[in-house]
Amino acid sequence: MRKGGIYPPAMVRPDSCAELLRAHNAAGRHLVVGLDTDPERIPAMLSPNAPAADRVVEFNRRIVEATADLACAYKPNAAFFEALGGDGFRALRETIGSIRSAAPEAAVILDAKRADIGSTNAGYVTAAFDELGADAITVHPYLGGEALEPFLRREEKLVFVLARTSNPGAGEFQDLVADGVPLYRHVARAVAGRWNAAGNCGLVVGATWPEELRLVREDVPAEMPILIPGAGAQGGDVAAVVAANREAGSEAFLINASRSILYASSGEDFADSARAAAEALDAEIRAAVAA
């Protein structure tokens, strides 16, 4: 199903994740496929007698192969792999291997939402970037930029910092006002300023909050990538998300959908149905960009 890459034959994949995603965005690719793979929702016909971790790997491989020419990135969610116990790390590594094989030009964003003191974060960095080979990771800002230094020092990677998350209760703390500005905007400004010395920071803002996204775009450079979960099953407004970026003159946005693509069908046609769902969302994004 793959239709060709974004680079001319003489080019190679950029070393920097930021450069890679800029190339995708310039080519009109903004779709991220989230791999929130629940073994209970894998079609029963797929390797029914295999261990759960092996079924997850096979399911993810089929999804990636079906969508490889559509997605600029894949976002495996660490929690679903950790829930598999001892085999989970292997399943995550093999899933990333499948992405490298079937979609070598796609970025791998590890959705792990890590945050701790610096020495602990050093372990998270080694696991995510060296052991698993991810290109980017999601992190919490609550401990401050100093604690995130082990991530920020990896200049070739991207560090997506949570600003305004997609869940309904996000505003409980994120909307608290300090010095006349909500907390999520303080986060965005810090990330865009002193945290971004190496140019390897991005933000996470949910598609369910397009007005907040518009305000964040006012606070950060147009070239700063924003990862936008919440399209699809969570009901995010794709047209409003694209408009918020367009008003700021930015094409650096990544719209993620997980369940609406992964579980488009529970039958033998699950991969074809996942592709159809990804094509539909990609077409919706492109139409909004062209509007």
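Above is the first protein from milestone M3; the second protein from the same milestone is given next.
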Amino acid sequence: MGDSIMATIINADTSDGLKITSDTSGLIEFQSAGVTKAGVNATGLTGNGSQLTALTSANLTGDLPAISGANLTGLPAGYTDSDALTLFNASGSAPVYACRAWVNFNGTGTVAIRDSGNVSSITDNGTGFYTINYTTAMPDTNYSTIGTIQKQSGAGVLCICSVVQSPVYNTNSTKVATTNASGAFEDMPIVCVSIFR
């Protein structure tokens, strides 16, 4: 006998019941009303992926094969402003711009970060002066800095957190200063800074 493999097509036909045919393709196909639902060839299972339903994690074992991006179709070319608005649950047509870094830190005594995003450390440069160091640098120096502070208890109002341009903005860090109601530099217990670009 030769080594050729004859194919078998098992078709659950709607009018004639179960039919079995064969050819020389080397493939076993399972059909319903003439439409292939799954198959087996020399390399493994074949078929229409849309027919695979109700899969559970218990039935998925082993490593998944690598997927070529060329085989991914029907995906959007990229996010639009409206996609971003939906993602952030924002209304209206105005665009959304992300915060590139933020930090909440204790500026009194030994400076300490309470929590942050894309901030690696805070440098204490003296009374009321701090440097915010970024984990990942800003793309350029055209960013916007927003700062707020909580004043020591019993003190006056109009306390300010301002950006110190010394010598200029840079991409790796930002210097800020905190002043009290009298305009004197003072360490503050809560300093919050956000960077937008």
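Note on the second protein: The first strand starts at residue 7 and ends at 13.
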